[in-house]
TrEMBL record:
Domain spans labelled Protein Lines C-terminal: 630-663
Gene: LOC109715072
The species this protein was found in: Ananas comosus (Pineapple)
Protein's recorded name: Uncharacterized protein LOC109715072 isoform X3
TM region positions: 111-136
Entry keywords, A to Z: Membrane, Transmembrane, Transmembrane helix
Length: 676
């Protein structure tokens, strides 16, 4: 291939001399020359990529005859283009092992540019990525083999099922004295993640090939050995990399289970189920591997790793076909590694609301060590509780299907209101975890009905307030609560004697009744329908907001009188709660322009920009909750109709407008009934 031969010649002539000499620290002059060479090579490769004609006949290009000879000398010869490829990769990855951050950075960028250039030649690109994975596995294997922390059994790990070309490639790495170090591992992980993100951006058909190559790595890595390597062990090359390595690895795994995978086609998800299962099985080992870092003195590093670990677990939780034993294990892992967050109070008095437009989940002021942790901790708390609820709900659902196999399925009348548990796989494990969480986080007395009625609204309001700062997690949680299998039980047994299991179900349903939560959500928004418009047009949360409104309105129609009669205690109305609002920009946001924040806002001449503020809810509550909710929803209906008529709404809102029209009809009927 003409272009491929040019690439091989360019890298060989420009960069090979820098790794042929004996390894030694770079002096200022040699460092300067190497950086200039890497920069020039990277720029030239990117130029080739930009000039690549997609309409060019690739077959004729591949068959072009070019006088070219690679400087590769091994007993085992390579076949065809594989010879050039092994030469290119073996030279470039060697620079990732240099103890120089600038060299590593430029080498990584150059390898990424090479990947983009080769991607048009499918089979060669696949071979390129395969060699990158092999280099990563070889480096980790070499580190474990040379570590005094690993036992002889741990060191038995070897890369299996390699082709002849792959084994020759490993021999070439050794011949060129590549430093198979932690620095190289970190650089390769970053490179592989960048390649993956590029494939997902272009929705490239090679993505599945990449996944196929990644799956054996996830399965075969010696995680037990890695977890034993002491980050302080001399000569292991980990100095300064204690957090970079786990963070980079988690970034790659989170990209492998990307957000768009949650909305993927069913056939694609089935094809990747093997990868998801392997990552799910890997979670306990990863938590063991990262245990020291998760509890590190450096809180910023610790919280970032916790965030990425929870993100991975949450994404996997949507994709797994769960067994009860896996769910029980994950619940134990949450309690073991995230107990401080899981059982942290959700009372609104403990929630700080110092929010600015620059806030992200990890925004913080480095000038104030106390306030530094507040946004981070609250974000992690939201993640942990969301995952905890999901695991409990799925476990309750599975246990309900298998309750006949459990000796506790038939509950006798019990003293002391204790929920019976017959073992680790008991059908009551999920309910027991929910009960403990309610008691520890909300001090909820589930078996005292009078106290429960008084405390449930306050706790639900504080719970919603916790999630108001992150719109995406707010609607994820609201949708999840709509799926709770025992919400309908609440109104069925106000008078009859309940078993402990039924009491827990009814207590949870009383607190998180979807009709009540809808009222409280509107209350926290101060019944401002424009905030709901912001939610609906957001490219990140718009779909979830629509789903929530449609589903919640269906529940309201089925429980209309509960919706109409709902009241909020005056002491809660008089307390101050935070309202999340946004400054609007312009109508371009409706056309999908990229925004720096997690949601998209807009303004027309009719709407006044709004700012973040906190005020008393009593300023917004001038009517009965039903009257406020009615006014808000009907105002939202009118605004959506206006935007739709002007073709300013980003998608078809007709299903939502039909639900609003039905809501309006219910309200008119309520007026007629009230007059009688």
């Amino acid at each position: 291939m003409a272009r491929f031969s040019r690439l091989c010649d360019l890298i060989t002539s420009s960069l090979l001399p820098f790794i042929e000499s004996e390894p030694s620290p770079l002096n200022k002059e040699s460092e300067k020359q190497l950086l200039l060479s890497l920069s020039r090579v990277s720029k030239e490769i990117r130029q080739w990529w930009n000039d690549l004609d997609p309409k060019l006949d690739q077959e004729s290009l591949a068959n072009a005859i070019v006088v070219h000879s690679c400087p590769v000398f091994l007993e085992q010869p390579f076949d065809g283009d594989c010879k050039c490829l092994t030469n290119i990769v073996s030279i470039m990855v060697a620079f990732l092992g240099f103890d120089n951050g600038y060299v590593q950075h430029l080498a990584g960028n150059t390898l990424f540019a090479i990947s983009n250039t080769l991607i048009s030649f499918g089979s060669i690109w696949i071979m390129f990525v395969q060699f990158i994975w092999i280099t990563l596995e070889t480096a980790i294997s070499n580190i474990c083999r040379n570590s005094s922390s690993c036992t002889a059994t741990d060191k038995l790990y070897e890369i299996e099922n390699l082709s002849t070309d792959s084994r020759s490639f490993i021999a070439l790495l050794q011949l060129r004295r590549a430093n198979l170090s932690w620095q190289m591992v970190a650089g390769l992980l970053r490179l592989l993640r960048n390649i993956l993100k590029f494939l997902k951006l272009d929705n490239n058909e090679l993505l599945e090939k990449y996944i196929d190559l990644a799956t054996p790595f996830v399965q075969n890595m010696p995680w037990d050995c890695l977890s034993k390597i002491n980050v302080g062990e001399k000569n292991n090359g980990l100095s300064g990399l204690e957090a970079i390595l786990p963070g980079t690895l988690l970034q790659l795994f989170c990209s492998l289970v990307g957000q768009n995978d949650l909305e993927g086609v069913e056939n694609d998800l089935l094809e990747r189920q093997d990868l998801f299962c392997k990552l799910c099985d890997l979670v306990p080992k990863l938590l063991s591997y990262f245990c020291n870092q998760l509890e590190a003195d450096n809180k910023l590093i610790s919280q970032y790793l916790r965030h990425k670990m929870l993100m991975l677990m949450i994404r996997l939780s949507f994709l797994m076909q769960w067994q009860s034993s896996q769910l029980a294990l994950w619940l134990q892992l949450l309690k073991q590694h995230f107990q401080d967050l899981l059982y942290k109070s959700v009372s609104h008095s403990d929630v700080e609301c110092e929010i600015s437009l620059e806030e992200s989940p990890f925004w913080s002021s480095f000038s104030d060590a106390v306030n530094l942790q507040i946004p981070c901790t609250q974000h992690l708390q939201r993640q942990v509780i969301f995952l905890f609820f999901k695991l409990c709900f799925v476990l309750i659902h599975i246990s309900g299907e298998n309750s006949q196999q459990c000796s506790c399925a038939e509950e006798p009348s019990l003293l002391n209101y204790k929920l019976p548990v017959c073992g680790d796989h008991c059908c009551h494990i999920g309910l027991l975890e929910i009960s403990e969480w309610l008691q520890r986080c909300g001090h909820i007395e589930m078996f005292d009905r009078v106290y429960l009625l008084k405390s449930s609204t306050s706790f639900a309001l504080s719970f919603l307030q916790l999630y108001m700062e992150e719109d995406d997690m707010l609607f994820d949680m609201l949708l999840q609560l709509l799926d709770v299998p025992f919400i309908a039980l609440q109104g069925e047994s106000d008078e009859k004697e309940l078993s402990p299991a039924e009491t827990i179900r009814c207590a949870f349903s009383s607190i998180f009744n979807p009709v009540h939560l809808f009222h409280l959500l509107l209350l926290l928004l101060h019944y401002d329908h424009l905030v709901l418009v912001d939610y609906l047009i957001s490219k990140d949360i718009g779909v979830n907001c629509v789903q929530y409104l449609l589903r919640c309105l269906r529940v309201i129609f089925q429980s209309w009188q509960i919706f109409v009669d709902y009241t909020i205690p005056k002491n809660l109305i008089n307390e101050s709660y935070h309202k999340r609002q946004r400054i609007s920009t312009d109508e371009d946001n409706l056309r999908g322009e990229e925004q720096p924040s997690s949601s998209v806002s807009f303004v027309t001449d009719e709407y006044i920009p709004r700012k973040h503020k906190s005020r008393s809810l009593s300023n917004s509550v001038n009517l009965h909750p039903f009257g406020n909710a009615k006014e808000c929803i009907l105002s939202l209906k009118k605004t959506l109709e206006d935007l739709h008529r002007k073709d300013l709404f980003p998608y078809n809102p007709k299903p939502l407008l039909r639900s609003f029209s039905r809501f309006q009809a219910f309200c008119k009927q309520q007026e007629i009934t009230s007059r009688k």
